Amino acid sequence: MESVLIEFENRLNQINTIETLAQLRSRYLGRNGVLKEMKTGANLKKLTAEERKQFGIQFNLLKSKIREMVENKQQLLGQGRPANRVDLTLPGERSKPGGLHPISQVQEEVENICLGMGFMVLSGSEMETDYNNFESLNTPADHPARDMQDTFWLDNGKLLRTQTSANQVQTMKKFGVPVRAVFPGKCFRYETTDATHENTFYQMEGLVVDENITIASVIAVMKRILSAVFGRDVTVRLRPGYFPFVEPAFELDIKCLICNGDGCSGCKQAGWLELLPCGLVHPVVLKNGGVDPDKYSGFAFGLGLTRLAMMKFKIPDIRLFNSGNLRFLEQF
Ligand code: FA5
Fold first, then answer.
1. Is the beta carbon of 189 within 6 A of some atom in ligand 1?
2. Three-state secondary structure along the chain?
């Protein structure tokens, strides 16, 4: 047995291609190879039972040694197991470039339009204090208007902001007046979802405080934003609204661009979609921001960015945006 191993080793040492290695392997381990011959050779019959047992043990050792040496040599020649092999004949793998989420695209577009009108673009915190989200906005704890926005309260006493208005007073305090800023961001409400309501959605707040600001100023800005986003004038309607932090308050609805006002699932058959409430900043809020309401006035609006993306891309169900559905997202 030892002589077989030595002879095999000598031959193996001379091998330097994978083809000749395969030939050597077959010569020793193949169906009619050296080892098979040893096992079935006539001499084996002459051995006693004990000698045959010893032969079997030695034979198996030899076989596994030869296998091991072949495998090592294979590795050495750069042709290891299939998993390690690089098959240059296979087609290449294409990497799919990612893209901006449709809401991010619309957000970026509106930010650029507002930057062009001289607004600063600010960001706020998604976790807010009760004071910033409600109290400072003329909405104390017992105010019924709190019921308009069901809130996710956190164990630490804070909340997930229900509206980007939470940044109004903070902005006035930080930058003083005159000030002209937009603050886009994610908002959260503990409410049942449907085709136009999500529990996590985006708004973009606009705030301008200066001398001689009137309701005409906010209407002009809102119209300018919408016609720039849609590349044409879109049909809107203004109706009285109510928010404790603006007076007077208005609701701006957009005529549904999916059904052109005929009624569809995207506007819940109304033909109109609530998009952009606004109003003149309440004197109490100006005071909370350290601003003199006798000298200054301001306007604020709360653009529903996710609903704007619905109208821009004609998406009939708001829930698709957060679905993580790649077949939906890959279209943008
Ligand atoms: C507010 O959140 C006020 N902070 C807006 C505001 C700002 C008023 C400044 C006056 C002055 P409202 O809850 O209506 O208001 O939300 C504003 C817009 O956000 C809605 O018109 C809508 O476009 C969007 N929105 C509100 N709730 C949801 C929701 N659950 N899912 C998707 N979009 C929503």
1. yes
2. CHHHHHHHHHHHHCCCCHHHHHHHHHHHHCCCCHHHHHHHCHHHHHCCHHHHHHHHHHHHHHHHHHHHHHHHHHHHCCCCCHHHCCCCCCCCCCCCCCCCCHHHHHHHHHHHHHHHCCCEECCCCCEECHHHHCHHHCCCCCCHHHHHCCCCECCCCCEECCCHHHHHHHHHHHHCCCEEEEEEEEEECCCCCECCECCEEEEEEEEEEECCCCHHHHHHHHHHHHHHHHCCCCCEEEEECCCCCEEEEEEEEEECCCCCCCCCHHHCCCCEEECCCEEEECHHHHHHCCCCCCCCEEEEEEEEHHHHHHHHHCCCCHHHCCCCCHHHHCCC
Q: Report the nearest atom of ligand 1 relative to the CA of 301.
A: 9
pTM: 0.75
**How far is ligand 1, taken at its centre, from the CA of residue 278, in Å?**
10
315 in contact with ligand 1, CB cutoff 6 A: no
pLDDT by 10s per residue, the chain, length 332: 889 999 999 999 999 888 899 999 999 999 889 998 887 776 777 888 888 889 889 999 999 999 999 999 888 887 555 556 677 888 888 888 889 999 999 999 999 999 999 999 999 999 999 999 999 999 998 888 888 889 999 999 999 999 999 999 999 999 999 999 999 999 999 999 999 999 999 999 999 999 999 999 999 999 999 999 999 999 999 999 999 999 999 999 999 999 999 999 999 999 999 999 999 999 999 999 999 999 999 999 999 999 999 999 999 999 999 999 999 999 99
The rounded Å distance from CA 186 to ligand 1 centre is 11
